[in-house]
Design goal:
It comes from Gonium pectorale. It holds the Pfam family SET. This is SET domain-containing protein. By secondary structure, the protein is an alpha+beta fold. It has a single domain, classed as SET domain (Beta-clip-like, Beta Complex). Helix content is 25%, strand content 14%. The chain has a 6-stranded mixed beta sheet with strand order 1-2-3-8-10-9. The chain has a 4-stranded antiparallel beta sheet with strand order 4-11-12-7. It has a two-stranded antiparallel ribbon with strand order 5-6. It starts with 18 loop residues before the first strand and ends in a 26-residue tail after the last helix.
């Protein structure tokens, strides 16, 4: 029998749960929580630790007791035991080299060596594919980004372009200048495309505003996303204003091979990407973003397309003429990182390669789409690069 080293409740100083980022922010597992949510994050961690104090001192706290599924809407195809075990190992809390009392990582949490960027012309050019066999219920990582109240995301969409650093504002203006579009619409489309509603189980109260009721929160991957932001939606043309769109495709859920599930880790609920079935090497990862997610983009997207905005360039920042010259054809092998010249127009808003959302499906056609979105530079930038915007009141998001 393998001996298990017990872990006492005294081995959980609060700093092992999350770290403070910029003034007032909290960073944990690749997530940066906005200052408005930081008190609730700390409160959730403290409540979990308080629960430990109710236990008898001789009772060990095992790794699996630090994690728990939340809610009842978990896909029945998933094994809760496998998901919790794999997440604990990924977080360094379990396994041969794991430590029960290990602090949660501050930076991105992604299953290393299992995935890589890939080309996908049908969905705007880029996606994420498996490099090894990924088994059902395997944890692929924690979906990273900036977590903020749902109400604040509206301010970001409406006014974020006014708070960009001059260099980024100039790049955005260059993309818009070649069309009849306006900067506000282009920004709203860009920021909205990196907007991800989070599971209701992740709702947090705005304690600084005197509220004790949980408020919905959302994730922005604009400037904060990790590799998992490259996961596409099974839909190919979700533009609901076109006659042949597939936004309401009835078998979308069946075509998805991974999903986001809420898992509570030491009192804090994290959005965890999990494989719904076995995924073969070379197969692209797909998850259902939902018809509502596409519809909230439709208005800005339709207007931008009508005004001639190059949505692919907006998203990927690839210089059009050089990409056309470099692109040998849509059926050619994906170019190496140094084969495609990339203009850092809007792409640097991401911490990952520039195709971090499944937005550009059929928005632009031809080899440019493939060339632009397949420009996935390696190695990836550092998790927390220099901010692209001066801090602003609500939210303090890099843009």
């Amino acid at each position: 029998m393998v001996a298990v080293t017990p872990m006492r409740r005294t081995m959980f100083p609060l700093h092992t749960a999350a770290r403070v980022g910029e003034p007032g922010q909290v960073r944990v597992c690749g997530l940066t929580f906005d200052t408005a949510l930081a008190p609730a994050v700390r409160s959730a961690q403290e409540a979990w630790q308080e629960g430990l104090s109710q236990r008898e001192p001789q009772h060990a706290i095992l790794a699996m007791e630090q994690l728990a599924f939340t809610g009842s809407r978990i896909d029945q195809r998933l094994s809760r035991a496998v998901v919790c075990n794999k997440l604990a190992r990924l977080l360094g809390l379990h396994g041969d080299n794991g430590r029960l009392e290990a602090p949660l990582p501050e930076g991105p949490v992604v299953l290393e060596g299992a995935m890589q960027p890939c080309g996908d012309p049908a969905r705007g050019g880029a996606g994420l594919q498996a490099t090894v066999l990924i088994r059902k219920s395997e944890v692929l990582g924690v979906v990273g980004g900036y977590v903020l109240p749902s109400g604040s995301i509206k301010n970001l969409l409406a006014a974020g372009h006014r708070h960009c650093r001059p260099a980024v504002a100039a790049r955005l203006a260059r993309v818009v200048a070649e069309s009849r579009a306006d900067t506000a619409t282009a920004w709203s489309l860009l920021a909205g495309g990196f907007r991800v509603p989070l599971p209701v189980e992740m709702a947090l109260p705005l304690l600084d505003e005197g509220s004790v009721l949980p408020s919905a929160v959302e994730l922005s991957m604009l400037g904060y996303g990790n590799l998992l932001a490259l996961v596409n939606d099974p839909r190919v043309d979700p533009r609901d204003w076109t006659p042949d769109n597939d936004v309401d495709l009835h078998n979308t859920a069946e075509r998805a091979n991974c999903t986001v599930v809420p898992v509570c880790v030491r009192g804090l609920v994290l959005p965890v990407l999990v494989a719904l079935r076995d995924i073969a090497p070379g197969e692209q990862l797909l998850r259902d973003y939902g018809a509502d997610w596409w519809r909230q983009l439709a208005s800005d997207w339709e207007v931008a397309e009508h005004d001639g905005l190059d949505v692919v360039r907006l998203l990927h920042g690839t210089q059009q003429q050089r990409a056309q010259d470099a692109e040998p054809g849509p059926l050619s092998p994906a170019p190496q990182p140094d084969e495609v010249v990339q203009e850092p127009a809007v792409a640097p808003l991401l911490d990952t390669p520039p195709a971090a959302m499944p937005l550009a499906a059929a928005a632009s056609t031809g080899p440019l789409v493939t060339a632009a979105a397949r420009a996935c530079p390696e190695p990836f930038p550092e998790p927390y690069p220099e901010p692209f915007a001066e801090p602003w009141a609500e939210p303090q998001l890099r843009c």
